[in-house]
Amino acid sequence: MEKDKLAMEVNKRRTFAIISHPDAGKTTITEQLLLFGGVVRKAGTVKAKKSGNFAKSDWMEIEKKRGISVTSSVMQFDYAGKRINILDTPGHEDFSEDTYRTLMAVDSAVMVIDSAKGIEPQTKKLFQVCRMRGIPIFTFINKLDRDGRPPLDLITELEEVLQIDAYAMNWPIGMGKGLKGIYDLFNQRIELYRREDKNESFLALNEKGELAEDHPLKSESIYRQVLEEVELLQAAGNQLDTAKVAAGKMTPVFFGSALTNFGVKTFLDAYLKFAPAPSTHKTETGQEVKPNDDAFSGFIFKIQANMNPNHRDRIAFVRICSGCFERGMDVTLQRTGKKLRLSNSTQFMADTRETVEEAVAGDIVGLYDTGNFQIGDTIYTGRTAVKFEKLPQFTPELFVKVTAKNVMKQKSFHKGIAQLVQEGAVQLYQSYSTGEYILGAVGQLQFEVFQFRMKNEYHSDVVMESIGHKIARWIDPAQLDEKMSSSRNLLVKDRHGMPLFLFENDFSERWFKDKYPDVKLTAKL
Ligand code: GDP
Questions:
Q1: Which residues contact 105 (CB under 8 A, 6 or more apart)?
Q2: pLDDT, tens digit, for every residue of 367-416?
Q3: d(CA 101, CA 375)
Q4: pTM: predicted TM-score of the whole model, two decimal places
Q5: Exposed, middle or buried by CB within 10 Å (0-12, 13-18, 19+), for 222?
Q6: Among 8, 157, 440, 459, which has the highest number of CB atoms less than 10 A from its own CB?
Q7: What's residue 31's pLDDT?
Q8: Residue 143 Cα, ligand 1 centroid: separation in angstroms?
Q9: Are 448 and 469 in contact (CB under 8 A)?
Q10: How many angstroms does the Cα of residue 117 sit away from the middle of ligand 1?
Q11: Which residues form a coiled coil (predicted)?
């Protein structure tokens, strides 16, 4: 691709994720956004329970049964001259690891909050990951059609709990049954909740910030109240500071109701004015890779097997960081130094997969994978080797021993485990003394999904025996003496062969440290 064209294409990209606590309305708002875009392509859908038209991967049965969103998917659409990539994130906290890695692949985030509930635990956790990356965060306070908390309370909570400045782009006029509309400071207009006739959903404001024309709303007390609140905000609240927004230090706040499609388009239009195009990505050695660089580079943030039961395959999701992807191109896989031809690629997967011919920095491509890739891998073209910064890794806290029910079926058992571990679904360890397989996870649900998938995808019934909560601590192999293992800790090796202890509790870790003061233990490899 020519340099100018590449720069123009990259500039059109807006790649973001929606973060929220389950049930705040992420799915509903995503569906609305896709509708505005007329959906170019979509993957996975949004959520099985509502649309019924989702990627019919059999393991998603577990989602249907439990009514939660387990997978992440990628959706792309064109809107207002921009190409938008939405990366969906699993809402359940047991899958936060997956979500966290997905957040490494976006340029901004939209935080959806339930107006009746305010900041919930999962919102807070995900917010902190975005904050750590310093990406811009936009807030949508949802469910205005229901009675929620007073808007001033919500803004105050946002600032206090998340320690971020908030700037209200608009303000609700009433709530629940009394919802009249939103007072839109950014566009200097009032957007009515119920249109009186087809043309009249927006009412202009004059320079004093009051309704320019005569309108029945003017005589309502809620209108007066909102004018006062807005005046208060302007006098005592923050001013919109685009530099702070770009640095993730101020969040523009929008109100609306995703279910009734109120305020969502207003949000999207304003969001696109502020959301950043793809920017630079840091390598492990601190160099910055620019999106407009000629050479292609990207990293794998997610691997998913068997998205379609008719094609037993694995897809590696690549976030393109620089240059242009072309089908059939040769790249170098940094970890092994091997050259690979990327001939089999798909932009997004769903019931209808589309082969992608070309994509640029900011886009996500799915590569069919026959076992070459691992999460965190960098691929690149050109002579200069590139290795992007490590993705965050979670130290598992829950452990089970795992065996195949049928000893005759070891082959499918090993194959299944190897693939699911490579996908990052669970962590695998092996006992030093007995060679037993031990799985580690952040949450119980990960084990359930593992068991379900082993049976459905690899025809392997597994037996899992809980060994409970443990504290995982790595030890330098040079300092290891197998005699250090006792009844209070379990010595295992991880899948790279590195030794670690699984301690029963804080007490047994302290006991170990007292006994071996010179031995260094680390929480993460
Ligand atoms: P997610 O778990 O964050 O993806 O949330 P969903 O989009 O699935 O929404 C959870 C529930 O809230 C569903 O029953 C939605 O219909 C409902 N919901 C979402 N947005 C709104 C809204 O604006 N108003 C009302 N009243 N309900 C909403």
A1: 15, 87, 299, 301, 302, 317, 319, 364
A2: 888 778 888 999 999 989 999 988 877 788 899 999 999 888 889 999 99
A3: 9
A4: 0.83
A5: middle
A6: 440
A7: 82
A8: 8
A9: no
A10: 13
A11: none
Does 25 belong to an annotated binding site? yes
Judge if the beta carbon of residue 400 lies within 6 A of ligand 1: no
- Could you tell me if 105 and 217 are in contact, meaning their C-beta atoms sit under 8 angstroms apart? no
ipTM above 0.95, yes or no: yes
Q: How confident is the model at residue 307 (pLDDT cuts 50, 70, 90)?
A: low
* 257 Cβ inside 6 Å of ligand 1: yes
Residue-level pLDDT at 349: 37
- Cα of 114 vs centre of ligand 1, distance in Å, is 9
Provide the 3-class DSSP secondary structure of residue 99.
helix
- Cα gap 339→183, rounded to integer Å: 56
For residue 146, the ligand 1 atom closest to its alpha carbon is 26
Interacting residues of 186 by C-beta distance below 8 A, sequence separation 6+: 169, 170, 240, 270
259 CB under 6 A from ligand 1? yes
Pocket of ligand 1, candidates 21, 23, 114, 120: which has the most ligand atoms within 8 Å of its Cβ, to mutate? 23
- Residue identifier of the C-alpha nearest atom 24 of ligand 1: 143
DSSP string, 369-381: ESS---TT-EEE-
Cα-to-centroid distance, 142 and ligand 1 (Å): 8
How far is ligand 1, taken at its centre, from the CA of residue 446, in Å?
25
Report the candidate in 432, 395, 387, 407 with the shortest Cα–Cα distance to residue 524. Answer: 395
Given ligand 1 and candidates 19, 259, 260, which is best to mutate, with the most ligand atoms within 8 Å of its CB? Answer: 259
User: For the chain, how many residues are written?
Assistant: 525
115 touches ligand 1 (CB under 6 Å): no
**Residue pair 98/91 in contact by the 8 Å Cβ criterion:** no
Domains with residue ranges and CATH for the chain: 16-65+90-274 (3.40.50.300), 281-380 (3.40.50.300), 398-522 (3.30.70.3280)
Tokens 């690899």 appear where?
Answer: 458
Cβ of 26 below 6 Å from ligand 1: yes
pLDDT in tens, 149-188: 999 999 999 999 999 999 999 999 999 999 999 999 999 9
Residue 277 pLDDT = 97
The secondary structure of 287-340 as a DSSP string is -EE-TT-SS-EEEEEEEEE-SBTTB--EEEEEEEEESEEETTEEEEETTTTEEE
Least confident of 66-80, 181-195, 363-377: 66-80
pLDDT at 200: 63
- pLDDT, tens only, 124-142: 988 988 998 899 999 999 9
Biggest CA-to-CA distance, the chain: 86
